[in-house]
Amino acid sequence: MEICVLGSGSSGNCMYVAGGGTRILIDAGLGIRETTARLAQLNVPLETIQGVLFTHDHADHCLRVDAWRRRHATPFYANEATAASIEQNVQKTDFAWNIFENGSPFLIGQLRVEPFSVPHDAADAVGFVIAEGGVRLGIATDLGMATILIRRKLAECDALILETNHDVEMLQRSERPWAVIQRIRGRQGHLSNEDAAELLASVLSPRLRTVFLAHLSAACNSPVLAERAVRAVLQQANREDIQLVHTSPDTISARIEIPAP
Ligand SMILES: [Zn+2]
Ligand SMILES: [Zn+2]
After folding, report:
1. What separation in Å is there between the alpha carbon of 238 and the centre of ligand 1?
2. Cα 43 to ligand 1 centre (Å)
3. Which of 12, 23, 91, 237 is 20 to 30 Å apart from 58, CA to CA?
4. Tens digit of pLDDT for each residue in 17-65?
């Protein structure tokens, strides 16, 4: 399986996953022009993408999808509530959605996709486990807390794309309104570096090899702080072999190949 985070953060999210000849994107928060340009850096034409899967309906995950739809017939996948909310936001009602149900796995080409519920203040946010050829990738990027269901889904994965959204101290000291700080820290908000580290510690399995640190707040976090928090738990667990991959809103991440076992 091949994984590249094309962009991640509050200004736009899009992840590229390929396996067994099937290529998909998770979220479309960069807009079609920027997505096309970043895919070109991987030598992947947009026309070869077999589906865009939406985690939820926040603008940083579904920017201008009406413009996308006008130019390309890429199949869109979402659950009912997310699809309805995205259509409402762009005032469109004629997208041909592929509707999935949380908890019900489905296939896109060779990729097996399993959506699961995550607590986040959106219509009906999900994370995904994507599997192909014995390799499993877990994705959880906008969530206020790690439920038992989430821990169960992210265990036994070979790679994770995990939110390390904010440093709690930086968030508290930020000039954001109190209500916004409470929203971010709340059970339907975002995981702090420490929250993510704790979640990671609880899902460490011998097969886990790679962790992408995703959805960092530009104002209230830094790659150094996120990595420090995660490294601390990996050190404690004697798992310094796990590769940490940084992501950014502005540039694509390293392109990681996870070989089949
Ligand atoms: Zn987001
Ligand atoms: Zn969100």
Report:
1. 31
2. 26
3. 23
4. 999 999 999 999 999 999 999 999 999 999 999 999 999 999 999 988 9
